[in-house]
Amino acid sequence: MVLVLSVVGVVSGGALVGIYRYAQPRIEVNRERALRVAIFEVLPGAETHETIVKEGKAIYKGFDSSGRLIGYAFTGNGPGYQGSIEVMIGVDSELEKTTGIEVLESVE
């Protein structure tokens, strides 16, 4: 009985590891796609963006079709009730107004 349960546990664990490794590249591609979409959602009117990395954090500059700076977007996170909530926040080019907030990840 113990041997059967041990074999079932090992096979199940191996299957989970295999599926995770198979799905991980797709998960990363989808996460990057969601990030790109969120940049344009929080910066209305932006058609292109440029990424700046400072102190390990990415800041996205959004530009309209004529190359004029529309604003900035960045990610932030904070505690929720059951876990962390990650959001994309957009601000105008003068850093005076919030132009949008998009939830990237939440386990609420």
Task: Give a verbal description of the structure.
The chain has 108 residues and is an alpha+beta fold. The protein has one domain (2-106). The chain has one helix at 2-42; strands at residues 48-54, 57-63, 69-79, 84-92, 98-106. It has a five-stranded antiparallel β-sheet with strand order 1-2-3-4-5, with helices on one face. Strand 3 (69-79) and strand 4 form a beta hairpin. The model has no long low-confidence stretch (mean pLDDT 92). It comes from marine sediment metagenome. The chain crosses the membrane at residues 6-23. This is FMN-binding domain-containing protein. Keywords: Membrane, Transmembrane, Transmembrane helix.
Key terms:
108 residues, alpha+beta, 5-stranded antiparallel beta sheet, elongated
Order of helices and strands: HEEEEE
The average pLDDT value, as a whole number, equals 92
- Which class best fits the helix and strand makeup? alpha+beta
| Side-by-side strand order of the widest sheet | 1-2-3-4-5
Computed Rg: 20 Å
How helical, in percent, are the residues?
25-40%
End-to-end separation in angstroms reads 39 Å
Principal-axes shape call: elongated
Largest sheet: 5 strands, antiparallel
Question: What's the number of domains?
Answer: 1
Give the percentage of residues in beta strands.
35-45%
E-strand count = 5
Number of helical segments with 4 or more residues:
1
Q: Are there runs of 5+ residues with pLDDT below 50, and where? A: none
Protein name: FMN-binding domain-containing protein
Keywords: Membrane, Transmembrane, Transmembrane helix
Organism: marine sediment metagenome
Transmembrane segments: 6-23
